Amino acid sequence: MAAAHVNENIRYEPNENPPPLVTIGAGAQAAALIVAPVVLTVVIVARIAGQSESYMAWGAFAALLVSGITTVLQAVRVGRVGAGHVLIMGTSGAFIAVCVAALVKGGPATMAGLIVISSLFQFLLAARLSLLRRIFTPVVSGTVIMLIAATVIPLVFDSLTHVPEGTASGVASKVAPVAALATIVTVAGLVLRAPPAWRLWSPVIGIAVGCAVSAPFGLYDVQTVLNAPWVGIPVGAWPGFDFTPDPVFWALLPAFVVVTLVGAIETVGDGVAIQRVSQRRSRATDFRVVQGALNADGVGNLLSGLLGTLPNTTYSTSISLAEVTGIAARRVGIVIGVLFVVVAFFPKFTALLIAIPGPVVAAYVTVLLGLLFVQGMRIVIQDGLDHRKAVVTGMAFWIGTGFQNKWIFPDLLGEGFIGVLFGNGMTSGALVAIIMMVFMELTGPRRRRLAVSLDTEALPRLEEFLRGFASRSGWNAASTERLVLVGEETLTSMTSEEDEPLNGDRPRRLVVIARKDVRGAELEFVSAAEGENLEDQLAYLGEAPDIPDGREISFRLLRHYASSVRHQKYHGVDIVTVNVEGGR
């Protein structure tokens, strides 16, 4: 276990407070980039489904309102709701197909009811995330993040030629590539070589350069901005919601639930990734942050359903923006959310952002998606990549990409439930990854289980349990002693004199699960304890030889004899996974 990695790119961590101008500047540029996709997704769905202009206006207003509220909620974290990080919320592109179907077959009220019901499954997943830890692994999360980039990038490339109606086609064909090239060269150049102060403003500068190139040739749609009112609320356009369990409702509900869970997987990946790019000193993933992100995502979906607009999700652009700017302070998330709410009441500003030429937006988003794809790869690789994980990642990614681009059985899927389910590459790829992980769990070596109270009196029973496991596995004496030592030191590290019983005087329970793996054994210690992350303590040992901690000896022995240690903290549950090499 090497010393913790230091990320020198981070200028401000989540708990730090940048200067007000830096906070407002970083929040404003992020909001400027995300406002357009939040609104455009609603407009696209409404136009495809043939909805009225009044509903379109209400949907855009409600989407901005919900996105702003939930972005602030993610940043500030209220109880168990929110990540405490800058996770930007916005309308989910994964719901486009199912929402169009709901609008066409049942109307806005039916779509709203389906969104409300399906949002409850997201709260359930957040509450039971620890039980699914072997399924929603870093391999699955990282693969989904890569699939997000792979499924969105074709739409981004299509936008490279998107220009306002009425623009001369010959002029557009010549100017659009120039505007896109000017934007991407400016952004990439500033990110690669500019000093930190200039790198912070690279998105705004790149978009400004692209707009400056586009405007003289009519690619910037000024008329849309002129026609929009300065202030306005689409009063009376709320569609309500309908929970009538008619055949249309039941036919569409499974698709909404599946897409909701797939969106939750994306949020899990974003919750893991934002922690990796927000801290200078590398720390173990805190799954309480992930649970908070899922709960806030569920609140967003619930509010979206109640207000009759498209569901919310975390935008993975949050990770790329943190990497590009080096600013992860949660105050930036508050600024972004407040600006979303403000812009919702000022249609003129929304129109100003929507009018940014498609080639300019596409060029900048290409940079962000490139960073996002690499972040997904990093999550998969840092978890340790063997041949099994490689097969899961490779097959899930390429099958998802194949379905997304209609390379796999395009004539057999049709337009029904199967077509909607597998037509989205993120959905199909995530399902493949989950099915393969479930298969590996069901066909893996048999697990041995021990349940005891979490105290020092558990040591004799743990030793007996581990020696019996080693004997059945045919291990030699040296490997057996190493296994017992690692188990005892893990238990010692999880207990201390400062620990207090939970639930009054009831002692904490510890469940130890042992199973054979390729190199030896995997021990999993599951308890209801709360405290410092053991994985971070072990990493810190590599940096500071002297630690004023009474458990220092246990930490050092565990670091020496275990081949790997992983500590996952959930609300109310601690899980320490230790790998020990063994031989016959």
Protein architecture, described:
With 584 residues, the protein is α+β, with helices and mostly antiparallel strands. The chain is built from 23 helices and 7 strands. The protein has helices spanning 20-48, 53-76, 96-105, 108-127, 138-158, 169-193, 196-199, 202-214, 222-227, 247-278, 287-307, 317-325, 330-344, 347-354, 358-382, 387-404, 410-413, 417-423, 425-443, 459-472, 477-494, 534-541, 552-561, and strands at 89-91, 312-314, 448-453, 509-516, 520-527, 564-570, 573-581. The strands form 2 sheets. The chain has a 5-stranded antiparallel sheet with strand order 3-4-5-7-6. Helix 5 (138-158) crosses helix 10. Residues 497-504 and 533-553 have low confidence and may be disordered.
